[in-house]
Amino acid sequence: MCRILIVDDEVEVREAVQRRLEREGYKVAVAPSEGEGIQRLNDAEKAFDIVITDMSMEDQESGIRILEGAVGRDVFTEVIVLTAYGNVANAVECMKRGAFDYVEKNMPGVDVYELLCLKVQQAVERRRSAVDTVRRLEAFTKTRGV
Prior knowledge:
Layout: E1 3-7, H1 11-23, E2 27-31, H2 34-43, E3 50-54, H3 62-73, E4 78-83, H4 88-96, E5 101-104, H5 112-144
Parallel strand pairs: 1-2, 1-3, 3-4, 4-5
InterPro entries: CheY-like_superfamily, Sig_transdc_resp-reg_receiver, WalR-like
Pfam family, one: Response_reg
Keywords: DNA-binding, Phosphoprotein, Transcription, Transcription regulation, Two-component regulatory system
């Protein structure tokens, strides 16, 4: 089962995303701040498959630090960054640092929760594909004695 961590300081957003993803069958953990998010990442017995984090919590770099913590723990963890104040520079910076995607919370005419579910499905598939590729490569090198 896919394990997802949601880190967002807005209770309404955090709970709405949690409910929606749990309805889709995901196992969801939450954290209300950067500090608790980092602690959840570090204390987890097994790395999270997906992390969804707000860009700005305690400060403008909170989401970047969550991103770095998640990818630092497991390079295959896919991170989706949410923001209420999207701009191109932030999006580019997040993608450079390894984010799977960058989603604005307030897009007129768009059901952001539906969009987020789609992004999560895509992230799960990318993670699964990457992990499978590494496993096949490991099996191949074992059979070749490399």
